[in-house]
Amino acid sequence: MSTVWITLAVIGSALVIGAVGRLVWKLRPQPEMSGLPTAPLERLGWVGLGVTLVVGIGLAALVAVTGTDFVDENTTARLLFWLLMIVGFGVWGASWYVIKRRTGGAVVDERDRAILARSLSVESMIVLFSLVTWTVVLTEVYWDEGVLPIAYLQLIFWSTFVGGAFGRSLGIVMGYRREVTVDA
Amino acid sequence: MPKAKIANDIRRLRFEHDEMTQQELAIRVECTRQTIIVLEKERYVPSLSLAFRIARVFDRTIEEVFEYCDDR
User: Fold this and answer.
1) Model confidence pLDDT, tens digit, residues A6-56
2) CB-CB neighbors (< 8 A) of A184 in chain B
3) Which of A51, B22, B47, B65 is 20 to 30 A from A131, comparing alpha carbons?
4) Where do the domains of chain B lie, and which CATH numbers do they carry?
5) Model-level pTM?
6) What is the radius of gyration, based on Cα positions, of chain B?
């Protein structure tokens, strides 16, 4: 039985590594696309990368210190959590407003929209990776108990949300280092 | 299928039109300056709509601004 699971794990890991490798190869930077002035959406992507990294690290630190108490019992930790989310994503939203005001002319054009659409593949990959990781880890840890602390639902959601936002920002920044075509 | 390349004369046409800047052209055709830059470098193939808008700014037809180069 264990041989079957090990075989499945090896095949699964190979598939995941292959898919991630293919994505990274497709989105690798092209030297001829470097040195361009940053587009407004690209600036938003950089801000998003910073914000999601800070929020993600903050969330991880909060969980490391308080466990899953921040969801319900520890009011201070819960306040810190919401502060982190509101300030972090608030800064991201406000930065878009500032970028739009500072930009003369169009802020997002057809090329930006194509890059934005393509960045979804990076976001999807990270969301999928997050869900698979949570599923495997929680199944392994709580298998014998047969029940799962409800606080993990909150953690799964928020980590996937922040990870998805990070993936979208990463996809945008990588997208500006690649040639892009539109079908319209 | 061979990869097609779309060449263009945007840079020359800008200079023939009172040395129009990339930003000015971007504003007139409603795109970002970065898009104009990658267009001039021929690293981006615009949509038909954007190609028409660019051609109209220079009072030219699309064929006078853009050229289809087949690699075959």
Assistant:
1) 888 888 888 878 877 877 776 677 777 777 778 889 999 999 999 999 999
2) 47-49
3) A51
4) 5-69 (1.10.260.40)
5) 0.80
6) 12
